Amino acid sequence: MKFKLITIFISVFVIFISCDKLLPPAPEESEILDGPMENLSYEQRLQFLRGDDAFNEVFTKESGLGPIFVANSCASCHSGDGKGHPFTTLTRFGQDDTTGNKYLNQGGNQLQHRALPGYKPETLPEGASHSDFIAPAVTGLGFLAYLTDESIIEMSDPNDANGDGISGVVNWIEIPDYINPSTSAISQNGKYIGRFGKKASAYNLLHQTVGAYNQDMGIASFFNPIDVYSNLEIEPEVSNQTIYDLDFYLHTLKAPIQRNQNNPEVIKGKVIFGQINCGSCHKETLRTGYSPIEALSNKEFHPYTDLLLHDMGSELDDNYTEGSALTSEWRTPALWGLGLSADSQGGQYYLMHDGRARSIEEAILFHGGEAERSKNLYLELNKEDKNSLIKFLKSL
Asked: What backbone phi and psi angles, to 5 degrees, belong to 276?
């Protein structure tokens, strides 16, 4: 009997070891976007995990979904915390001027194109302009959240005073009552600096989170108790604690880690990136101000963005505005994590605000307006230099 038990134990052990060898190795941290930033306390890691659960929660009719909606979970639009796929495209609608959205009483500013059985999905109001948005990656957002208003304003150049053809501007937005601006926030005529979203129309990550629950999933909260279908106030369908946990999760997702930094071609590509003036908008290095989250306080980071609006030319003019952002103006997207974008998009790149570019080079060629000169300088590069630049961008 004893011999038989030993034999069984050895057999199970051998099977376990064999199966372990068949499993793929764990990916390097630089090869994935999700995961917490370093130096969080034990309590902060617990809150991060609760936020992770909230991010992946799948809502149903019973838990408050809809009745009209875009998606049934955060993760369905941000797989692996990365960029979205055209299948989960968001459609925003409104107007072509900056006088304010005229369609808020008709379900604006986001189209809920799916519905529970027995309900009809929303349709675009007659006369409304609209634009399609691909969901962005959500990693590293805490660093952008704690970049100071002063730093953003210092990078702006509305009148192109330095004559480089780049005139990034701030999107001054009205903020909802539940937002308490930071003590260092700068306001202008009662408006504050937007920094999140394709047109920088969200003030902070709480603003973004509450809006996503309501407009993406039809989930009412204490902060926004309005039902997207009836336009009436209803009881909250998600707790305040869950909102705070998800907000914390978005703040403390790690920043994307650059890969192959010492590769000679990557190094050469980075030099070319600077030579053709891409860094005028895609700022490599920024620094946070004070944050109550110590891991984010006064930290240098490398997002390759200035969080400003830039005129991108007629080809990217979607005839749609948000806040003070004009129809052809878009917030500079952070380039960190760019090389991993296809991993969350089914192996195919879908870049620019609406996913129209199917490669990094195609995204470059869609640049116009303030970026026209940089695009033309790219076109003048020889094939080897273009390849080095693309290799650098894929390393981010």
From this structure: -95, 15
Q: Tell which residue, 129, 94, 112, has the closest CA to residue 318.
A: 129
**Pair of tokens at residue 90:** 């968001």
Residue 322 phi/psi, 5-degree rounding, is: -145, 130
Architecture, CATH, for domain 264-395? Orthogonal Bundle (1.10)
Domain ranges of the chain: 35-252, 264-395
Nearest to 253 by CA among 38, 20, 53: 38
Taking the C-alpha atoms of residue 31 and residue 96, their distance in angstroms, rounded to an integer, is: 40
Question: pLDDT digits over 245-258, tens only?
Answer: 999 999 999 999 99
For residue 194, what are the contacts with CB-CB under 8 A and spacing of at least 6? Answer: 170, 171, 172, 173, 200, 201, 202, 203, 323
pLDDT tens digits, residue range 88-131? 899 999 999 988 888 888 887 999 999 999 999 999 999 999 99
89 CB-side CA count, 13 A:
15
pLDDT digits (tens, 9 = 90+) for 167-199: 999 999 999 999 999 888 999 999 999 999 999
DSSP structural state of residue 187: E
- Kindly report the number of other CB atoms within 10 A of residue 295's CB atom: 18
Assessment of whether the complete model's pTM goes beyond 0.90:
yes
If residue 317 lies in a helix (H) or strand (E), which one and from where to where? none
